[in-house]
Design goal:
Order of helices and strands: HHEEEEHEEHEEEHEEEHHHEHEEEEEH
Radius of gyration: 28 Å
Strand order of the largest sheet: 1-4-18-13
Shape: globular
Helix content: 10-25%
Largest sheet: 4 strands, antiparallel
Distance between the termini: 53 Å
Oligomer: single chain
Length: about 500
């Protein structure tokens, strides 16, 4: 381009005669560099640019919760414990939310995916067709990935059978083969966009402070912390939070390895001196419980499920994937806002009673002391058998309590912002255990009436599985609410 400009500037008749040709060539070159169309001249008025709009389809099994306002917390003093709960006016943006809690069936799909990916990784060591080589635009190899199009062997060879058997253990009592849950480790990465955007972490030191009265030291060292994980030679998961000097944008990529198999023993560990062996052995594995909420899943495992669900979705979206937000756990504010419904009721339904005049209960909880069956259930129930709230969400009270992404503090909403409030802390392994408490909402099948109110707050440690805690996912919306309304009108 520089050469052409210099040629145009040459003096003499030849240069003048060739000027139109050079000018045309210059414009053609600009067109090839900056797109097929040059910006049209609009009389000096700024008219904006246009582009192809992204139409976000409704995620399967989710409902859209419109943005709005909430008086978060319990305004009246709790009569059961006399405990004062902070109250604050907050506003949240719209988001997608699972209509029901994540079920055993859906979580088993996750487990099976991890099992099959591990199996394919190992089979690729003896059969290269289980792996696809990735190349750049110049054809240079830049890595490889699992070939999911190649089916697993139906009639495995001796070597293949040995690899398959390596994923199972033998029950010493019955002799049955069982999946070795200790191997069900899922590795995923999350980029911390929020930390990367903070001004104090700018790569260029002069951009870290906008106050021109302050001289920024260009040699100042900036340190960040990030989560990393690996498997040692003995097969143990080693998780670390490391502090390192800021070197570039990749420093904000966090790596996690989580054993994702639910703790089925929670049924006996949560209830000493009770005969819950049947639930321990069959609740997660028996298809009879397919549509029941998964339990025994820690906060860490629920986050791993969200990461896998995002990965699973993005594989089929192509270029549109960059506009789609990842699946995640709801914030405490999002959960309460969604549970209260459009009229922001104390319970997810329209009145303060927990049963209709005919004695039909509105949720699965413990109505009386010890009488778990009064509402028709003993433990959990199938998701979605009680009526949805006005947001189209089922079981936002009772059945199982639900993990949120928010850390638990006594101050609660008082310590949060009043727009899209969130308190987040990624606890390091060496942190005190008290810093690993997460907020849990909704109450469960074992809780009394007071605990199933939409504003009631409880907590659990992030690595603690319970037989009465499950979760559901949310996803921020890529389009605005007004665009969503237009989409709905077109579909009608």
């Amino acid at each position: 381009m520089k050469r052409i400009v210099n040629m145009v500037k040459q003096k003499g008749s030849m240069a003048k005669g060739l000027f139109p040709f050079y000018l045309f060539t210059f414009l053609l070159l600009l067109t090839s560099c900056f797109g097929s169309k040059l910006a049209s001249y609009n009389g000096g008025e700024v008219t904006g640019t246009s582009g192809k709009a992204f139409t976000e389809p409704t995620p399967y099994g989710m409902t859209f919760v419109k943005r709005g306002h909430l008086k978060m917390g319990i305004e009246k003093q709790d009569t059961l414990w006399g405990k004062q709960t902070p109250v604050r006016d907050i506003s949240v943006d719209g988001f997608w939310m699972d209509e029901t809690e994540v079920t055993n069936s859906k979580y088993r799909q996750f487990v099976n995916y991890v099992r099959d990916s591990i199996l394919r990784e190992r089979l690729a060591e003896i059969d290269e067709t289980y792996r696809v080589v990735k190349t750049d635009k110049d054809g240079e190899e830049i890595g490889s990935q699992i070939n999911w199009k190649k089916p697993l062997p139906r009639r495995p060879s001796e070597d293949e059978q040995e690899i398959i058997d390596g994923l199972y253990v033998t029950n010493p009592v019955t002799g049955d083969k069982m999946l070795d849950y200790t191997q069900m480790n899922y590795r995923y990465e999350i980029y911390d966009y929020t930390s990367a955007a903070l001004r104090k972490y700018r790569i260029n030191p002069t951009e870290r402070n906008l106050n021109t009265d302050i001289t920024v030291d260009p040699n100042e060292e900036v340190w960040i912390s990030k989560d990393t994980a690996y498997v040692d030679d003995e097969g143990r998961i080693i998780r670390e939070t490391i502090n390192r000097q800021l070197t570039g944008p990749w420093d904000f990529l966090n790596t996690y390895i989580v054993n994702i198999y639910p703790d089925t023993t929670c049924w006996v560990n949560d209830f000493p001196n009770a005969d819950n062996e049947t639930y321990m052995r069959y609740y997660f594995s028996n298809p009879a419980y397919n549509d029941y909420p998964v339990v025994g899943v820690t906060w860490e495992q629920a986050n791993a499920f969200c990461a896998w669900r995002t990965e699973y979705l993005l594989k089929g979206l192509g270029p549109a994937a960059r506009y789609v937000q990842r699946y995640r756990l709801p914030t405490e504010a999002e959960w309460e806002y969604a549970a209260r419904g459009k009229d922001q009721n104390e319970f997810p339904w329209d009145n303060e009673d927990v049963a209709s005049g005919k004695g039909c209960f509105f949720a699965n909880f413990k109505p009386d002391n010890g009488n778990y069956t009064k509402d028709g259930n003993l433990i959990t129930s199938r998701v979605g058998i009680y009526a949805a709230n006005s947001n189209g969400l089922f079981d936002m009270a009772g059945n199982v309590a639900e993990w949120t992404s928010t850390i638990y503090t006594e101050a609660g909403v008082e310590a949060m912002n009043d727009i899209n409030p969130q308190l987040k802390y990624n606890a390091a392994i060496e942190d005190p255990y008290r810093l690993k408490k997460k907020s849990v909402r909704g109450g469960s099948w074992k809780d009394p009436e007071s605990y199933i109110r939409s504003a009631w707050r409880s907590s659990e440690y992030q690595n603690q599985p319970r037989s009465y805690i499950g979760f559901r996912c949310v996803r921020s919306m890529a389009n605005t609410t007004s665009e969503k309304v237009k989409l709905d009108k077109k579909r009608r």
